[in-house]
Each structure stands twice: as structure tokens, then as C-alpha cells.
């Protein structure tokens, strides 16, 4: 039921489908090692979690009879499609802005209901789920997604709705440093990133520039200081408590590709989140916690820049930790990145997991090559493929979104949804083509 079995170890009963024992992921029922292999399922906008109902799996091609304007499900048919192609794991986006849209000591009930429904489907179909606290360009106030707008209003109150500094003027001469009128539209709206015309234009392919803006850097600086850190850790604890009774939820990955070079600050945050999670669930709960390096790159940094307290904490080998990393070309070749991850993880008694990689085929950066490198070191992997399941396009004549009036009455499914392209599983499931 749980895919590739690599070894057998002693294990006690647990409330998770997969847990960590002796530095490896294991099946809680059989005690056998599990190689987690799967895909990303990350929705970057409201309602943030897919619908678990429906009579057909998702499809996104017009030629696909199951295709809809916008793919909105991860139901039993989607799960069986995944399982039928050999996958046993998904990385499910649980973005902070979706889970805790207001500054209250509680998660959004409707969001939790959707999350529970997906987890129930996955448990029934033998799919382990790692919950991914996803961010890109920090948050909506910086044209990305991640931290809620209320957090940005605490972190960068003077930057909300203002031109983002250090961004170049666009080719159409709009959205420069003096274009205050356009940047001010929808200021403070939780959906600023998908409503503001400048955000929509910058999100056409060069969105990575948003991460280096002063607003983004100041947001991360606030998050890594005491007040911001405690608010982030509170969310991780609430999330852990919300999935306590859901055995498919086997772990929480604390942040997608952390946009900060402050490694010491990030690891201090990971420890606080870890303690918040452990305090929010029973002592014997085996929910795993994923820690990572800046940008989620596996550079083999060892204990470089870590504080003495962090080193002491890691040396104590906290239970249920794993090291999460990504690979999109650096360091090269991919085998180096995998070895770096394995070495760091083993040094601290935990497994590693490649939670994102992309590409097709068997070239140096192809998905087959990457997955094979991970598998050869008994490291699991989660495939990522950008997929245009977006708010229906508003622009006639093929113009990019952002270059025509916003249609606020159109049916909406967040911003772009990313992860495995449902209609192209033969491409996503690299094991079938390698």
C-alpha cells in the first residue's frame, strides 16, 4: 500500500500513516521503510485547498472530457489516478494567508473543513501528505502569497499599497517608482496580489524580482524577530492541532524556499515552530516537522552561521525532524545536492526529503535524472510542474493577464495553481518514462 519498501525496522503503533524511526520514514503498520514519491498540489489563492468532492478527476485540456475552466478538486478519483501511477505521497499547500486570514488564535473553519476532506481521501487511498506552508515573494502585500495581509500590516505598515522599491519599470512604462495611483489600487485587500494591476503584470514570469524588494526583505526581517516569529510559530501549532486526528497528515514543512539569507534566524524560527507544534499535540504524536536552509537549497553548509543554541538543539536529535530541500539546478550535479542533504540529515539523526524538483526527461536537469539521484540515496521526492489552472483569463486576444481590465465578477479559483499537471500524469510521473 505504501510503495517501495526498503528495509524493516521495529516500530510501535502510531496515529500517523507514515512516521520517522531511526532516521528514516517508515510505514506505521508494517514498520518497513517507505520511499515517499509523489507530486506537489499547491493552490496559490482562495479558497486555498481543493474540493474533495466530484465524480471525475481534474483535467485542464480542452480535449479532455473532464476539463473545466478551472481545476478545483483533489477527490477520490484524483487520488486513485495518483496511486495508479505509482505515487504514494503529495505535498499539499497550506499557505498561512489561507489558514489564518485574521489575527485570531484560530484557523478559518471553512479552510479546515476543506483540509480535512482532502486528508480523509488521502488516508483512504494510501497517500501520505506533507503539509507545505507555502510562500512565494513573501505575501500578497508584495504581490506574492504567503503571510496574511494582517501580518504585512504589522511588518510593513508604511509600504502597503506603495510602489515596490528596486523593481524596474515595466516595458509599457507603468508600475514604476512614481506610479502611485496604480500601486494603490486594492491596497490592504487580502487578494491584492491578484487584483492590483501592477502585481498582475509583475506575476507574468519575472515574479522572482519581487522577493528582492525592500518590502519583502523588511517582512522577512520582522518575521524572524521575536514578535513575528511567535505569530508564525502560533500558526504552525494551530495547524498541527487541526490535523491531530488525520493520519494521512504525516508532516509539516515549515516554509517553502525561505527568502532570507539569515540562516541563524531561520533555524531559530524552526526551533520555535517545532516547540509550538509539539506543545499543540499529544506527546506521543509522531507528526514530522521539516526544516530547511535559505531558499531550500542543499549547499552542504553544515553548522555554518548557526547559533550555539541551535547547534545544541540539533545535537539533541529532536524526535520527528526531517530535512526538506529543493533542486532546480544548484548545486550541480544533482547528486551533490542529494549527498549534501543526506549528510546533514544523517548527522542529526533524521531523514531528508526532496520536496520539489521539476523538468522532463533524462538530461542533466531532467526530472528522471533528479528523481533517480534521490532514489539511489533512498531519498523521497515530490515533483513540481507549473500548471495554468488560473482564475479564468480576463484578456481577449491572448494578452497576458494584467494587461486588460480586471473582471471581478468572473468565477475565480485563486491565482495560478501549481504542482502536478493532472491531464499530463504521464509527464509528471517520471518513473513511467525513465
In short:
The protein has 14 helices and 14 strands. It has 434 residues and is α/β, with parallel strands linked by helices.
Structure description:
Helices cover 30% and strands 15% of the residues. A hairpin with a 2-residue loop joins strand 2 (18-21) and strand 3 (24-27). It is of the alpha/beta class and 434 residues long. It has a single domain, classed as Alpha-Beta Barrel (TIM Barrel), CATH 3.20.20. Helix 9 (226-242) packs parallel to helix 10. The strands form 3 sheets. An 8-stranded parallel barrel has the order 5-6-7-8-9-10-11-12, surrounded by 4 helices. Strands 1-4 form a two-stranded antiparallel ribbon. It has helices at residues 76-84, 96-99, 109-124, 149-155, 180-184, 192-195, 197-202, 214-223, 226-242, 263-280, 308-315, 334-347, 367-376, 425-428, and strands spanning 5-8, 18-21, 24-27, 32-34, 37-43, 89-93, 128-132, 249-253, 288-291, 321-327, 352-357, 380-383, 385-389, 417-419. The two termini are 22 Å apart. The chain is built from 14 helices and 14 strands. It is globular. The model is unreliable at 1-14, 60-70, 388-393 and 411-434 (pLDDT under 50).
Amino acid at each position: 500500500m505504501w510503495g517501495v519498501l526498503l528495509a524493516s525496522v521495529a516500530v510501535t503503533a502510531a496515529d500517523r500513516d507514515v512516521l520517522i524511526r531511526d532516521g528514516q520514514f517508515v510505514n506505521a503498520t508494517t514498520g518497513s521503510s517507505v520511499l515517499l514519491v509523489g507530486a506537489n498540489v499547491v493552490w496559490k489563492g482562495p479558497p486555498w485547498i481543493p474540493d474533495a468532492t466530484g465524480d471525475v478527476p481534474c483535467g485542464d485540456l480542452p480535449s479532455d472530457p473532464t476539463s473545466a475552466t478551472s481545476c478545483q478538486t483533489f477527490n477520490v478519483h484524483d487520488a486513485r489516478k495518483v496511486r495508479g501511477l505509482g505515487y504514494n505521497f503529495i505535498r499539499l499547500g497550506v499557505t498561512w494567508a489561507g489558514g489564518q486570514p485574521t489575527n485570531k488564535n484560530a484557523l478559518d473553519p471553512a479552510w479546515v473543513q476543506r483540509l480535512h476532506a482532502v486528508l480523509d481521501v488521502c488516508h483512504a487511498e494510501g497517500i501520505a501528505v506533507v503539509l507545505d506552508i507555502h510562500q512565494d515573494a513573501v505575501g500578497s502585500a508584495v504581490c506574492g502569497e504567503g503571510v496574511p495581509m494582517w501580518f504585512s500590516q504589522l511588518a510593513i505598515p508604511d509600504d502597503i499599497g506603495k510602489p515596490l522599491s528596486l523593481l524596474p519599470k515595466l516595458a509599457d512604462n507603468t508600475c514604476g517608482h512614481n506610479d502611485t495611483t496604480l500601486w494603490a489600487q486594492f491596497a490592504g485587500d487580502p487578494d491584492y496580489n491578484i487584483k492590483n494591476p501592477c502585481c498582475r503584470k509583475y506575476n507574468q514570469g519575472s515574479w522572482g524580482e519581487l522577493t528582492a524588494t525592500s518590502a519583502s526583505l523588511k517582512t522577512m526581517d520582522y518575521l524572524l524577530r521575536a514578535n513575528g516569529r511567535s505569530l508564525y510559530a502560533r500558526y504552525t501549532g494551530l495547524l498541527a492541532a487541526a490535523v491531530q486526528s488525520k493520519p494521512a497528515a504525516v508532516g509539516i514543512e515549515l516554509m517553502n524556499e525561505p527568502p532570507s539569507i539569515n540562516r541563524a534566524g531561520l533555524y531559530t524560527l524552526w526551533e520555535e515552530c517545532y516547540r509550538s507544534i509539539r506543545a499543540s499535540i499529544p506527546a506521543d504524536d509522531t507528526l514530522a516537522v521539516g526544516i530547511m536552509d535559505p531558499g531550500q537549497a542543499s549547499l552542504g553548509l553544515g553548522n555554518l552561521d548557526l547559533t550555539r543554541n541551535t547547534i545544541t538543539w540539533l545535537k539533541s536529535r529532536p524526535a520527528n525532524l526531517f530535512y526538506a530541500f529543493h533542486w532546480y539546478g544548484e548545486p550541480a550535479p544533482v547528486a551533490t545536492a542529494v549527498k549534501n542533504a543526506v549528510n546533514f540529515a544523517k548527522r542529526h539523526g533524521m531523514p531528508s526529503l526532496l520536496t520539489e524538483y521539476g523538468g522532463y526527461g533524462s538530461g542533466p536537469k531532467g526530472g528522471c535524472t533528479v528523481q533517480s539521484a534521490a532514489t539511489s540515496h533512498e531519498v523521497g521526492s515530490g515533483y513540481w510542474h507549473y500548471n495554468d489552472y488560473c482564475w479564468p483569463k480576463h484578456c481577449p486576444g491572448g494578452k497576458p493577464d494584467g494587461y486588460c481590465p480586471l473582471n471581478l465578477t468572473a468565477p475565480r479559483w485563486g491565482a495560478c495553481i501549481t504542482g502536478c499537471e493532472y491531464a499530463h500524469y504521464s509527464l509528471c510521473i517520471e518513473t513511467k518514462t525513465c
